[in-house]
Design brief:
It is a single chain. Helix content is about 65%, strand content about 0%. The protein is an all-alpha fold. The radius of gyration is 21 Å and the shape is globular. About 50% of the residues are buried.
Length: about 400
């Protein structure tokens, strides 16, 4: 990391002043307070999971609701919330989501060895909260995507310090809440961390099987939810999906070619991710960029695929900005985020139901930017190309927190 006065990196990693932290506190406080005042049931998406838990407590099947897209383990995880009145959830959920987003940002910073008291720490979170629309949307929705936003940087932070089994357990727990981080199993395959991969698979599998045995419809996820996800033909959900398979048919492209294009893009992204993992550069950068490429590849084909999924990878990339050769130093990284600026009136796209077109642009441009960086930008990091066993690269010295 460059800390000299002549480089912007040096300015970013120096301590932030009181006014900057005060501005951050005001913005986060205003966003959270506004959500508490206007949101019903602790967030619309959170209410879906909570209602599923209440249905189970009443003796019904959570999978009677076709929009409940989680593993059975998520039902038990939502029981504590289901026992609380909605008025209490209104107050507790928005601060909890905001806090989890902040913790995820802190883990991303520490992964890249950026001090938590730095200007980047304050400015980055301030920029996400005030300048990236999905941040506020995630707080308002209370979506359980926030578990992945926190778990992924925490997982990579543990992996960068050689604690791969603990990293696998973190991802496993997150998948038990919501299967969004399932593609991260490929990272453990790239790194040949088979024991950690086993933990990653075992945790959600055991939790889901145990929870399913308590359901009136134990196979509900397999017989109802999985076919729903594979078909992807829900008219309501399709309006908000950002994957090419959902957006291109709305522009007149036949469904099969649109889906094929998404699959090819995802496959190319996985290849680029593997190339980045085997390439040069410090371990934290390889972990962050490989993981970002894997997750963006998954978002190109996942059904559904929403704009707030981008918060899973964006903090990882943004936190690496002080390092030479980082993705966040590429112009197209910032240009991809322009459609997500809050308050910009985009002609013909003002409607909430047409937001998916803007989201698709951000997803595709960001995915291509990260993929190109994985292929062409690794040499800028310096050092020899991949070692014989890149998954067992020595852990770099870590400065104290």
């Amino acid at each position: 990391m460059v800390t000299g006065k002549s480089d912007i990196s040096g300015w970013l990693v120096r301590p932030a002043g009181g006014p900057l932290w005060s501005a951050l506190a005001v913005v986060l406080g205003a966003l959270t307070t506004h959500t508490v005042l206007v949101t019903s049931g602790g967030g619309m998406d959170n209410a879906i999971v909570v209602d599923a838990a209440r249905t189970w407590l009443a003796g019904g099947s959570p999978y009677d609701d076709p929009h409940f897209l989680y593993f059975p383990s998520a039902v038990l995880a939502a029981v504590p919330q289901a026992l609380l009145p909605r008025s209490v959830l209104d107050v507790l959920v928005p601060p909890a989501v905001t806090g989890a987003l902040a913790l995820g940002w802190a883990c991303a910073l520490r992964l890249h060895r950026v001090p938590l008291h730095s200007r980047l720490a304050a400015l980055g979170l301030l920029g996400l909260a005030a300048g990236f629309a999905p941040f506020g949307q995630l707080v308002r929705l209370g979506n359980w995507t926030v578990t992945a936003v926190l778990a992924l940087p925490l997982c990579l932070l543990l992996a960068s310090r050689g604690r791969w089994v603990a990293a696998g357990a973190v991802v496993g727990v997150a998948v038990a809440f919501k299967p969004l981080l399932a593609p991260m199993a490929l990272l453990f395959c790239f790194a040949r961390r088979w024991r950690a991969l086993g933990v990653l698979v075992l945790v959600p599998s055991a939790a889901s099987v145990s929870a399913a045995l308590l359901m009136p419809d134990p196979a509900g996820f397999l017989t109802r939810t999985l076919p729903f996800l594979l078909r992807g033909d829900d008219a309501f959900v399709r309006l908000y999906e950002a994957s090419p398979a959902a957006v291109l048919p709305r522009l007149g492209v036949p469904g099969a070619p649109a889906a094929l294009l998404g699959v090819l893009g995802a496959a190319a992204g996985v290849v680029c991710a593997y190339r980045r993992w085997c390439g040069p550069g410090p371990l934290p950068a390889r972990l962050a960029e490989t993981s970002a490429a894997l997750m963006l590849s998954a978002f190109l084909v996942s059904r559904p695929s929403y704009n707030h999924y981008l918060l899973v990878v964006l903090p990882l990339l943004l936190a690496g900005a002080p390092h030479p050769g980082a993705v966040a130093r590429r112009p197209w990284f910032w240009l991809s985020l322009v459609p997500q600026l809050p308050g910009v009136p985009w002609p013909w796209l003002e409607s909430v139901r047409r937001r998916a077109f803007r989201d698709a642009v951000t997803l595709c441009v960001l995915a291509v930017t990260v993929a190109r960086h994985c292929l062409r930008g690794t040499r800028e990091a310096g050092g020899p190309r991949g070692a014989p066993d890149p998954g067992r690269a020595p852990v770099e010295p870590v400065e104290s927190v």
